[in-house]
Amino acid sequence: MAVPKRKQSRANTRARRSQWKADAPTLVKTVENGKTTYSLPHRAKVVEDSAGTPLFLEYKGRKVADI
User: What are the GO cellular component annotations (predicted)?
Assistant: First the structure.
């Protein structure tokens, strides 16, 4: 196992750790029946009836799974 020859300073440690940042997810805008929705790309979306109850999952216009 590799062992550092010298102790790394707090400033260097924190500078290295500060480079890890969370990225904002890329959203896809879709408009259906005048309603705008934003969703993640390559994810199945939930299809709901007029009352708002979930029916099934849909991906690329095809039924993927029941809920």
Answer: large ribosomal subunit
Separation CA 52–CA 55 (nearest Å): 9
Cα gap 17→9, rounded to integer Å: 13
The total number of structural domains in the chain stands at: 1
Q: Which of 54, 61, 26 is nearest to 40 (CA)?
A: 26
Position 45 in a domain: yes
C-alpha closest to that of 56 among 40, 42, 45: 45
What pTM, to 2 d.p., does this model score? Answer: 0.50
Instruction: Write out the residue range of the structural domain in which residue 46 sits.
Output: 25-66
Give backbone dihedrals phi and psi of 17, rounded to 5 degrees, phi first.
-70, -25
pLDDT tens across 50-65, in order? Answer: 999 999 999 988 999 9
